[in-house]
Amino acid sequence: MKLVWSPETASKAYIDTVKSGVVPCGTTHRLYAATNAIMRLFHGCELHQGSGVAELISAMAAGWNAKLIVETWSQGGRIPTSIGLAIAARHTGGRHVCVVPDHRSRVAFIDAISSTITSPEIMVGDPEEVMRELDGIDFLVVDSARRDFTRFLCLARLSQRGAVLLCKNAGGGKTASCGFKWRGVLDSRKRVVRTAYLPVGEGIEMAHVAGTGSTSSNKRRWVKHFDQISGEEHVIRTT
């Protein structure tokens, strides 16, 4: 199994995020340019730069049919991305979890989002406490403004289908300039198949992690081969 892109679901989430009022009016004409840009991204083409962060991330989470969406947030952070993710979860029928560092941030988050949309599940704690409780993440959004953002990436227990990881507020690629490398913060068992920098908002670093497949497909098998000329039997191990 692997993540499969659905442009129809992405489009619905994009439109609903625009309609929610968290992004400026008059942006629906960018819908197909934005969703198609996500697809073109994985074929080496440029991203459409007119899209906003909230509607783009919402379309991405919904388009990849994310069943466990996790984001990090702290007091003083912006709320539109959270609203976009909540809308995406509604379209995919998935679980949306917001991780905050303390109870003050929890109260601030609830106050900020309650007037706009149903609040997602909120978990309070540091990365080590929280991430062990979240298994099968297929869409993760962290904020590079948080000093512990790399720990969330390292400790994330990703879905067997694979996962899309986003690091927002990357500031024109500042994460790369300060030595940030996806392979440097992810568990060695997580295979990164594509990375990109998205020039939207304050910048987004993005990585697509491959799925692990089913347990049976990962097991090595022994295959017997009979050489009809020599009469010898060969046993070959496949990976």
Q: What order do the helices and strands come in, and which of them pair?
A:
Layout: H1 7-19, H2 31-41, H3 53-63, E1 68-72, H4 80-92, E2 95-100, H5 103-113, E3 121-124, H6 127-131, E4 135-137, E5 139-143, H7 149-155, E6 157-158, E7 163-168, H8 174-177, H9 182-185, E8 192-198, E9 204-209, H10 215-218, E10 221-226, E11 233-238
Parallel strand pairs: 1-2, 1-5, 2-3, 4-6, 5-7
Antiparallel strand pairs: 7-9, 8-9, 10-11
Helix pairs in contact: 1-2, 1-3, 1-4, 3-4
Descriptive report:
With 239 residues, the protein is α/β, with parallel strands linked by helices. Residues 25-29, 42-50 and 214-219 have low confidence and may be disordered. The chain contains ten helices and eleven strands. Helix 1 packs antiparallel against helix 3 (53-63) and helix 1 (7-19) packs across helix 4. It is globular. Strands 3-2-1-5-7-9-8 form a seven-stranded mixed sheet, sandwiched between helices. Strands 4-6 form a two-stranded parallel sheet. It has a two-stranded antiparallel sheet with strand order 10-11. 41% of the residues are buried. Helix 4 (80-92) links the parallel strand 1 and strand 2 (95-100).
Task: Provide key terms for this protein.
7-stranded mixed beta sheet; two-stranded parallel ribbon; 10 helices; 35% helix; 23% strand; globular
Brief summary of the model shown:
This protein is α/β, with parallel strands linked by helices and 239 residues long.
The fraction of residues in strands falls at 15-25%
Question: Helical region count?
Answer: 10
Mean pLDDT: 79
What structural class do the secondary elements suggest? Answer: alpha/beta
Strand line-up across the major sheet: 3-2-1-5-7-9-8
Radius of gyration over C-alpha positions, nearest whole angstrom? 20 Å
